[in-house]
Design a protein that fits this description.
mainly alpha, 10 helices, about 0% strand
């Protein structure tokens, strides 16, 4: 837990950095197509550091995430055959990917929206969207609504709670870290078992 605590403190330090906006954008962008760590971690850290800028950070997060989702779409659409072994070995399983393709046949908008708002791995859906050639407009609109809602809800809570939220996170850091990991793993589990 000491390492995680140091990482948490390091992430919080971005609130004072002149590069914090770019770091948040790049994390949100990368997470939507290939990176495993959700941008919520940095969003929360920045919003706690500067509650008055919470909604600004949520906007950066949303734009970065939607643009990263478009990159994921084009990975699936254009170069999937070249990179699929990498993704199946390091990012998500082939079984999960096949299940997502089935969801797209049922309702592509709802599938993207659900993945964008919940802990379900969003990157699987962006890449599968390109492979399945769903409409790019569907991906962009569903992503903008779901990712925006997710990030702005987090920002709104932190804007409202501000200092007390920081005290709460500091006090229950270890428990919240475990909960976050459970949610992240749970997203993959839900995708694998329920869908």
């Amino acid at each position: 837990m000491k390492f995680i605590r140091k990482l948490y403190d390091w992430v919080l330090s971005w609130a004072e950095s002149k590069h914090s906006n770019w770091a948040l954008f790049l994390l949100a962008f990368a997470e939507s197509s290939f990176f495993p760590v959700p941008p919520d971690v940095l969003l929360i850290a920045l919003a706690i550091g500067k509650p008055a800028k919470s909604f600004f950070y949520a906007g950066i997060c949303t734009i970065g995430s939607v643009m990263g989702g478009i990159l994921g779409y084009f990975i699936g659409y254009g170069i999937w055959e070249i990179v699929k072994d990498f993704f199946f070995n390091y990012v998500f399983s082939e079984q999960i990917f096949i299940k997502v393709q089935t969801l797209y046949q049922q309702n592509a908008f709802l599938a993207v929206f659900t993945a964008g708002f919940t802990p379900i791995p969003y990157k699987v859906f962006t890449i599968a969207g390109g492979v399945c050639q769903i409409g790019l407009a569907i991906l962009i609109i569903a992503s903008a609504f779901s990712r925006g809602a997710r990030f702005f809800i987090v920002a709104g809570l932190l804007w409202k709670l501000g200092g007390p939220a920081k005290k709460f996170i500091d006090k229950y850091f270890n428990l919240l870290t475990i909960l976050f990991i459970v949610l992240l793993i749970g997203g993959f589990f839900i995708l694998k078992k329920i869908f």
